[in-house]
């Protein structure tokens, strides 16, 4: 959908984007991650043609990015708002028409969206009479009403209560199912794992990591498992230190529950471990220790040796 | 292009629909016309009030017969007792007076004028001037001069001030009228430029403070948003002026037919109002000043066209700068430091207009100020009622167009950076840096 090639953006005293290249696949939900000031907003503004890069180019659906593409993009900025004195309906019409919809078309679609979100009776209300969360809902409608192929959401869930955040998340997923590509910029890592197929991590104007979420997580897997078990009738906890299948990293013992964290070694597999254990203990649970996106994020951003990422060396 | 029309439309409709717009549109002409109506009405009223009845007790004996009734005073010789007269005066009608002329009037030159209310200045002046003439005549007579031949000395002089037009014709010149109109126009254009310029700035700040600006400029170019706003508000201004002119004409027609039965009364009332100076008869020559002719001599069509041209040009020039200022700040209170240097070039001709420009409308200062795009909207309008060669008006207008193209280009470069800068107080240096950003 979007091919970003060697984008550089220089402001007088700092470089906002330093040779950023990304590929956003069609139909994906693409997480654009990074700490504050990393350059996410600068990049998004360039995609929206609000500003222009100093060098590099962007291809939209195979074509060099062009002002005509604006109507196929829906953008929800982090810094967003509405005209306070204007009626909601008129405001929506205005914003939709700016995106190239005809008045009649815009009216129909806005009504449909309002029905869907159960806010039909807001048409004649003024923005200043709505709560922050309600305004966000309206703003979301304004972003997607022209059925864009590419939807760019910068922190879309800020200002929503959990219930409404869920509603909006469902809508985002549905839009995605219907074919829209979504770029989702955020600091909220837990939602990234729920939503995103791909991510790119930007830090200090540079891309530090990108790719499919599953692959990235796999590359961070370290063959570490936590095994919970209880001992069998004879009441003896087996001594794991003699096996060549794995190393024990940590052991915790409660009255009738034992937990051991292990790392596989010598090409052993989880099946080998199971075979080894199954005659000695009652296995209750085995889970793989997978780093969360949060951990990966923190690891890359802090970059120093004070990393909080659990490296089980 | 279609989108800029959408923006203009929103800016225009949202403002015209406001209650405050309607209020200002209808109240301002009412206020002005009301003020003038009040002046006319009061003048007329005072004209009726000043008519005085003067009872005379003439102890000298020969004075009373020389006093003549006129439109302001009716004299009546009274034979009754002084105390009786004073008593009558207390109960008497408004502006009833008692003139007591002592026996030694010609030598002492003192009289008493008793009045039912506060002695009316007009009546006093009238009585004084008549008595002075009586004394003068008496003294001429004593000197053995022929009073009649002296009276025939006429030193009154009329100046026919005419200006030579380009075609070589002589045209009646009414400098006073030109001056009045010049001041009025100068005030009006100065006020409206600042007023509508500030509205543009407020609009920009509002969009920035509401954080809607980034939503909008993801659909349109910042330049389109800026121009849409400027044009939309400009159209609001023009709508307001047209409504003002229209409403004023209607109100004037209604009021002039309602208040004055005929033009004569109006003219007389106005003439009196303008020229009634204490005593001096010579000045009454001015009462003949023909206001209707004077007003007829002003080319209102030219004035109106020039007003709109220079208002538009000046508005486009200044509102672009106001937009740039609005984009650079987060709130109106912050804007002060930038609006000051912007409005300076407007303020200069405005202040000068009260002296230099009006007194010497074709001097070099006035001419230069009316050519420089920043000062020309005000300065040119001050000059136009005095008659400015067409080539100068056209040149000035062309320079103004050039001026607003340059300032708009300049302002747009600051605007597109400024509207995306939040929470950062910009210095003038910073604005110049924004200006050099590529895009």
UniProtKB/TrEMBL annotation, chain A:
Keywords, comma-separated and alphabetical? ATP-binding, Nodulation, Nucleotide-binding, Transport
Instruction: List, alphabetically, the SUPFAM superfamilies matched.
Output: P-loop containing nucleoside triphosphate hydrolases (SSF52540)
Tell me, what is one Gene Ontology molecular-function annotation carried by this entry?
ATP binding
What is the superkingdom listed in this entry's lineage? Bacteria
rRNA-binding keyword on record: no
Query: Where does the ABC transporter domain start and stop, copy by copy?
Result: 2-229
PROSITE patterns from the xrefs? Answer: ABC_TRANSPORTER_1, ABC_TRANSPORTER_2
Spell out the family assignment given in the record's similarity comment: Belongs to the ABC transporter superfamily.
Q: Know the name of this protein?
A: ABC transporter ATP-binding protein
Name the source organism. Answer: Sphingobacterium arenae
Recall the taxonomic lineage recorded for the source organism: Bacteria, Pseudomonadati, Bacteroidota, Sphingobacteriia, Sphingobacteriales
UniProtKB/TrEMBL annotation, chain B:
Does the record bear Nucleotide-binding in its keywords?
A: no
Is Metal-binding one of the keywords UniProt gives this record? no
Where does the ABC-2 type transporter transmembrane domain start and stop, copy by copy? 19-412
- Keywords for this entry? Cell membrane, Membrane, Transmembrane, Transmembrane helix
TM ranges: 21-42, 177-200, 212-235, 241-260, 305-326, 338-358, 365-386, 392-415
InterPro entries the UniProt entry points to: ABC-2_transporter_component, ABC2_TM
Tell me what topology the record assigns in the membrane.
Multi-pass membrane protein
**Cellular compartments annotated:** Cell membrane
Q: Per its UniProt record, what PANTHER family does this chain match?
A: MEMBRANE COMPONENT OF ABC TRANSPORTER YHHJ-RELATED (PTHR30294), MULTIDRUG ABC TRANSPORTER PERMEASE YBHS-RELATED (PTHR30294:SF29)
Report what the protein is called: ABC transporter permease
